[in-house]
Amino acid sequence: MSTLKVLQRFAQSIPDPRAAGALTSILNRIIPDSVNNAVTALAGGGQSNATALKIDAAFHNVTTVATAADSIKLPAAVVGELHFVKNSAAASMQVFGSGTDTIDSVATATGVPQAAGDGVLYFCVTNGNYLRIGGVDATEIFTTLTTNTIAGGTTPLAINGQAAAQGGTVAITGGTSSTSANAGGPITVTGGAPGATGVGGAVTVIGGAAVSGAGGAASFAGGAGGLAGAGGGVTITGGLAGATNATGGAILVTAGAGQGTGSGGVVTLTGGASGAGATGNGGAISVVGGAAASTNGTGGASGIRGGVGTGTGTGGAATLTGGASGSGATGNGGATTITAGAALSTNGTGGAVSVTAGAGSGSGNGGSISKTGGAAGATGTGGNAALTGGVGGATSGAGGTAIVSGGAATTSGAGGLSRVIGGAGAAAGAGGAAQLTGGLGGATDAIGGAATVTAGAGQGTAAGGVASIAGGASGSGATGNGGAVSVLAGAATSTNGTGGAATLTGGVGTGSGNGGAITITTGAAGATGVAGAMAISVGAATSGNGSSITITGGNGAGGTNAGGNINLVPGAAVSTGIPGNIQINGVAGIHAAHWHQATNATVPVSGQSNTIFIAMRAYRVISVSIICSSTGTVPTVDVKIETGTTAPGSGTSVLTGVVTFSGTANTLVAGTITGTVANLTLAAGNRISVTWGGTVGTILNASVAVLLAPI
Predict the structure, then answer these.
(1) Helix axes 3-12, 17-30, angle to 10 degrees
(2) b or e along 268-278 (b: 16 or more beta carbons within 10 Å of the residue's beta carbon)?
(3) Would you call 12 helix, strand, or coil by DSSP?
(4) What percent of the chain is helix, strand and coil (3-state, nearest 5)?
(5) Please, which pLDDT band fits residue 639 given cuts at 50, 70 and 90?
(6) Do domains 32-133 and 589-710 have the same CATH topology?
(7) Distance (Å, rounded) from C-alpha 129 to C-alpha 137?
(8) What is the spatial distance between Cα 458 and Cα 464, in angstroms, rounded to a whole number?
């Protein structure tokens, strides 16, 4: 029989039942040997209602833990308490102290986990706190641990900060040098060496996972410099490759993935801030592809790429932005420079710089590329946006071409536009000009570079693209004019140089196709305005003869083909308006119909009508004039147009009334032309007649002239 049983029987033999019960209770607490078996942990966990272990049992077997973190609670932590707890269930449980008691000084409401299958001895050496051994490897709080080596077993070696209201920090610090000139001790974290064909062990630094708050940061920081010393660098280097053509280890900096609708974490590379002195510069950021050390190896690429979008999401932007200037009066914003690598070989080509927008898919558009000069301050000029070909070689190499090309279409889509657009003016400022300027000629008699605007060539039976130069539309105000279009040949600045020619040439036709037409059309008028005039003027001479204007129809070629016509077509009128005329030196009319008194003896009779003109094409009457050398009589004349078989004098008058000869000899008299255009128009085959009236008498040297314009 055990000592405990003997003492228990002694206690039970005491006549006073109260004394017997108290002694029995004390004995059970001092020397417990009962078993608390088949314990079920509280479903849902927590301290308040956790399953309480029996105070009079030394051994506790928890057989049911339905869900991880279901809980049990130890008896009150009094010096001498000792409880062995076995978790025989399949899930981890949470063990709490009673009231404000702690376990391993972990916060009361936090408790400690006990894994499935573990047996742990909880014992109290200080009231209010249990210590534990077994089930966890060396779980204890150390103020200071000094050792040369900490080696894990076959299971992972973990160094954990103390669990508390604020999680405990884990600090690994290199040793402090005791000598002024010596360096502090380094810290090296090295993954384990693999087996013969295995992979070396990874090294992972991970911030603490949060339940609902933000995850803990993981930081690498170089040591702070002292006095004038530089701050310690941070170097992350991929592992050295094996000896035989193996690839060096990659370096990845990856922000944390978002959950649900949360965004992925940002990756930021930031140069160090300068000191507070007057001239310190912020630290630069360099992203440099690896140098090739082989005989003909290519240098490693350096890429900045936005993240891939999913579903209807947009791909991530890639932005290179120069730093903002200081707040002083004259500081400039930092430049952004993208420079391809220089060729160092004998005849090597410099590296290309490509800025390519993302390709669209389905019916989506390709991404845009924008080169935009920086916005100006209050009175400054906006920054230039320049595309400049590379400088030619020192001896005779041509400068590099600068090309702005719209994107090529696929299948049946139109090619992308290529535009050069001046900046928009603000308030009353003028819009910025858009210029295409050929390069300056070299110093010694070299020709300036050409500026060519060429529409795209058609394919198959399609027409070539149109090349349009359009002046800008005016503003919407009352008096703004549309912008002019000027095509100016270059001025000669040499002693006797000829100004450059300006040529408009229609495209050459092929096969049976016609040559391209040249059309010059003035602008249409507004509601009450006049359509724009058209002027073709020869440049003024300063000492020599004026130059001619020559308009030449095309020559026929081969067989009996005709030469091309020159067609001058005046503008048509609206309603009762007078159509435009072909004028020479500002005066309309090219042909004149005449009647002249043959001899003084052939005096016409009043009422007599004579045909004086037969139209061989269409004409319009411009004016009628008469003159005579007689002053004794003043007869009248009417001028009429006859059609078909109408007899002379029976047609329609071109005048508002008959015209009367002057009583003064040799005085020209002009008739008044009707405003009805139809009464002035002759078709081919129509005739003009004159009809006499009044007192003819002895009129001498009479003459009638009708000025005509072909239409």
Answers:
(1) 160
(2) eeeeeeeeeee
(3) helix
(4) 5, 15, 80
(5) very high
(6) yes
(7) 19
(8) 4
Angle at 357 between CA 351 and CA 359, to 5 degrees: 120
CA-to-CA dists, residue 667 to 439, 637, 701, 702, 703, angstroms: 67, 15, 12, 11, 11
Contact 662, 669 (CB under 8 A): yes
590 — alpha (psi -120 to 50), left (phi > 0) or beta?
A: alpha
Instruction: List the helix and strand counts (H, then E) for the chain.
Output: 2, 22
**pLDDT tens by residue, 443-455:** 777 787 888 888 8
Buried residues in 319-350 as b, exposed as e (16+ CB within 10 A): eeeeeeeeeeeeeeeeeeeeeeeeeeeeeeee
All structural domains of the chain with their residue ranges = 32-133, 589-710
Q: Smallest Cα–Cα separation from 204: which of 223, 194, 218?
A: 218
Tens digit of pLDDT for each residue in 296-349? 888 888 778 777 877 787 777 778 787 787 777 777 888 888 887 888 878 888
Nearest to 190 by CA among 156, 148, 242, 239: 239
C-alpha 69/C-alpha 520 separation (Å) is 89
Q: In angstroms, rounded to a whole number, what is the distance separating the alpha carbons of residues 550 and 183?
A: 92
**298 near 290, Cβ under 8 Å?**
no
Top mean-pLDDT range of 209-213, 491-495, 629-633, 676-680: 676-680
Q: How far apart are CA 566 and CA 554, in angstroms?
A: 9
Strand 703-710 versus strand 591-596 pairing type? antiparallel
Angstrom distance (rounded) from CA 152 to CA 474: 82
With 80 as the cut, is the pLDDT of residue 560 above it? yes
Q: Which of 23-37, 120-134, 695-709 has the lowest mean pLDDT?
A: 23-37
- Give 134's Cβ-side CA count (13 Å radius): 13
The whole-angstrom separation of Cα 171 and Cα 528 is 87
**Which secondary-structure segment (H or E) carries 120?**
strand 119-126
- How far is 688 from 646, CA to CA, in rounded Å? 11
Return the CATH number of the domain spanning residue range 32-133.
2.60.120
| Nearest partner of 385 among 326, 432, 417, judged by Cα | 432
In angstroms, the CA 69 to CA 67 distance is 6
């009043």: which residue's tokens?
A: 606
CATH 1.10.418 is held by the domain 589-710 = no
- By C-alpha distance, which of 115, 122, 119 is closest to 86? 119
Short-list 686, 706, 691, CA closest to 594: 706
Exposure b/e, 188-200, CB count within 10 A at least 16 = b:
eeeeeeeeeeeee
Q: Which of 72, 79, 130 is nearest to 101 (CA)?
A: 130
How many Å apart are CA 343 and CA 397, to the nearest integer?
15
